[in-house]
# Entry
Amino acid sequence: MTEPLTEAQSAAEWAQVLRDRPPIVLATGPAADADRARADATHPILVAMRAAATNHYDLKGQPR
# Structure
């Protein structure tokens, strides 16, 4: 059985984890929203999903 970590050991372990894998920080505010909207407008997968949602298809899967 292992001994429980001390507070110092736990802090050191978390510090190492955060150095290895820093947290993702999401930018906020109007400028960040505009940047995300601009990126979403040109992302190929999102463009294809929007096109598929707005197009009507016939029985053979071709756009009408």
